[in-house]
Design the sequence.
């Protein structure tokens, strides 16, 4: 499980780059609301993470790709709610992007264990 968590973390880091990049472009360049920008960045990163985790981390051969992807996205949406909750909570004390980083760390823990025990065990 530790090896998978490390791989999950590497995939998550790629998602972090995607998430921060999309969020930054939407918030700073396009001036979209910071929470909407955060949500869009998070969901695009989650989709990318699903593909990488399916292929590399969990080496899933499940033919029910739609069911597996749906489970992953539902878990990610719950993670998004957790992410936004902690983003709002931490932003009272820290900057938006530092708060976002803290929220991501908490969300990664939720996402890994939920996907480990649910999505990739279907």
Sequence:
């Amino acid at each position: 499980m530790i090896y998978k968590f490390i791989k999950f973390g590497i995939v998550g880091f790629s998602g972090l780059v995607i998430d921060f990049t999309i969020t930054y472009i939407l918030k700073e360049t396009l001036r979209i609301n910071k929470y909407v920008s955060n949500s869009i960045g998070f969901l695009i990163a989650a989709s990318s993470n699903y593909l990488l985790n399916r292929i590399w981390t969990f080496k899933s051969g499940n033919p029910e790709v739609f069911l597996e992807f749906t489970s992953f996205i539902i878990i990610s949406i719950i993670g998004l709610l957790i992410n936004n909750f902690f983003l709002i909570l931490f932003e009272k004390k820290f900057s938006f992007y530092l708060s976002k980083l803290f929220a991501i760390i908490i969300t990664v823990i939720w996402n890994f264990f939920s996907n480990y025990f649910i999505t990739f065990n279907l």
Notes: The mean pLDDT is 93. The two ends are 17 Å apart (CA to CA). Residues 12 and 73 are 14 Å apart (CA to CA).
